[in-house]
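Thread amino acids onto this structure.
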């Protein structure tokens, strides 16, 4: 009887567990505050697989061996680090210079990379171009799609140009079928579009759940490391901009790339949020065309508008993105506020940093901005994060407020402190050389870096404070158009409009 009771207990339905979508922490019950990472409202329910759904160790080993290419065996046990050879670790070029720059020089064999971005930003187009360029070099490439059919992908590929024979296509959502096909074909690159559409039959829950995304990513990680195949995962993002699914997915991959930009802008920026084989400060710039994403040879020219820059509220800064300095145009507009609380609107710039610059301008420079609306935008959909752009943003705001344009062909560089002083910026010489190549004639920079700026071929204006920069880098005041008088209401009678016009033209003494 006792054995029957134990078997009845073991036959109970498995309980549900909860996972934190930010860090992957598992808890037996629901939680509002994650005890591991401290995030709120990140609990996601995932059914805990029972004994029947959980494969045994022998079953896992046999499945993993079935997914590996023929002749490839996984080495068991620990090995001396000195005995590990570096024969097949040379980077392979993707055929796209901007993508190679972000990856650190190319693709490392056996790496697992995650590519995220907003819907419609061009992730699938970028991956299809990568697969096409990789296959054109004679490397077998397998493109797996779980969202589109063969005809849809072929229609999109026809816009990109010639389709090489080494590019193979598989439309499948079952992970075991995908890995078995990859083990049979032995590709040098595998593209999964997207990881949220894959699922394993031995796990409960539909595609895109925490358990499915985590286990599918782990299986692809084992395949990439054992087969020395570069695997690219396309990931959907949430409304906060993070990759959907458990945070552990970003921890297990080798690189996390984000494709950024406005949907209605031509330019796309590719950044690396994580890269085990290179720097995370590099940046790739692409232009979205009908024929796909085209690499931008001169990004500085792309982010500078074609209009005149001798109008109030326009300044040019040099942002350092990895080893590449980019010239970016910043536009500011300051106008009188007609509401109780003035507006502070930014596009491509941190609003909290803008609040700091406005406080410094009011306290240290004397600009009364408390009753004015301030709008700041960065042209081209570029996101400006470099602290060295503080001086240019502050000059654009002061220029619009005083109606004094920044001097023609002038570059502004410097980090603004709370005391109003200008701090150093890294690699000042590289930024000034980029400005000289783009035809700029003058540069304002922190005085403490005067020795670093020699030989740049520009007129140097060393500055100490933000007040001094506003005095030396702003030109003469220009006349602003006067506000037009409000038009008379059309619903009034002609006699009332004549009476109103008469009162307006009557001298003040008569009214008194």
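Threaded sequence (512 positions):
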């Amino acid at each position: 009887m006792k054995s029957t009771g134990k078997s009845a207990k073991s036959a109970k339905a498995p309980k549900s567990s909860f996972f934190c979508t930010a860090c992957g922490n598992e808890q037996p019950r629901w939680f509002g505050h994650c005890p591991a990472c401290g995030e709120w409202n990140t609990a996601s329910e995932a059914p805990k697989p029972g004994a029947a759904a959980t494969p045994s160790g022998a079953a896992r080993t046999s499945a993993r061996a079935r997914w590996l290419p023929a002749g490839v065996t996984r080495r068991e046990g620990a090995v001396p680090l000195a005995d590990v050879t570096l024969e097949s670790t040379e980077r392979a070029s993707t055929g796209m210079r901007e993508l190679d720059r972000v990856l650190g020089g190319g693709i490392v064999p056996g790496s697992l990379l995650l590519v995220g971005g907003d819907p419609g930003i061009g992730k699938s187009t970028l991956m299809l171009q990568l697969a096409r360029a990789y296959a054109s070099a004679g490397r077998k490439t397998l493109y797996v799609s779980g969202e589109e059919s063969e005809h849809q992908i072929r229609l999109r590929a026809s816009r990109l140009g010639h389709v090489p024979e080494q590019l193979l296509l598989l439309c499948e959502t079952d992970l075991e079928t995908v890995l078995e096909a990859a083990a049979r074909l032995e590709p040098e690159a595998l593209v999964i579009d997207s990881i949220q559409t894959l699922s394993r039959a031995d796990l409960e829950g539909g595609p895109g759940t925490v358990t499915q995304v985590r286990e599918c990513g782990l299986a692809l990680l084992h395949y990439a490391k054992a087969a020395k195949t570069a695997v690219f995962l396309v990931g959907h993002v949430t409304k906060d901009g993070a990759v959907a699914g458990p945070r552990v997915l970003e921890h297990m991959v080798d690189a996390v790339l984000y494709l950024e930009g406005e949907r209605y802008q031509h330019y796309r920026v590719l950044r690396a949020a994580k890269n085990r084989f290179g720097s995370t400060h590099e940046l790739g710039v692409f232009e979205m065309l009908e024929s796909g994403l085209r690499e931008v040879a001169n990004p500085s020219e792309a982010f500078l508008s074609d209009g005149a820059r001798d109008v109030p509220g326009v300044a040019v800064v040099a942002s350092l993105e990895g080893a590449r300095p980019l010239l970016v145009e910043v536009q500011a507009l300051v106008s009188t506020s007609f509401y109780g609380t003035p507006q502070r609107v930014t596009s491509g710039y941190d609003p909290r940093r803008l609040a700091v610059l406005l406080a410094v301008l009011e306290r240290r420079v004397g600009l009364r901005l408390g009753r004015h609306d301030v709008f700041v935008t960065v042209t081209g959909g570029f996101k400006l994060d470099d602290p060295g752009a503080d001086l240019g943003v502050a000059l654009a705001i002061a220029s619009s407020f005083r109606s004094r344009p920044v001097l023609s062909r002038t570059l502004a560089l410097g980090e603004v402190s709370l005391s109003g002083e200008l701090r150093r910026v890294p690699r000042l010489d590289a930024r000034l050389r980029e400005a000289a190549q783009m035809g700029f004639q003058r540069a304002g920079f922190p005085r403490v870096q005067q020795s670093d700026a020699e030989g740049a071929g520009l007129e140097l204006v060393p500055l100490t404070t933000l007040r001094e920069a506003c005095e030396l880098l702003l030109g003469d005041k220009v006349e602003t158009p006067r506000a037009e008088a409000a038009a008379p209401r059309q619903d009034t009678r002609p006699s009332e409009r004549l009476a109103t016009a008469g009162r307006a033209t009557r001298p003040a003494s008569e009214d008194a």
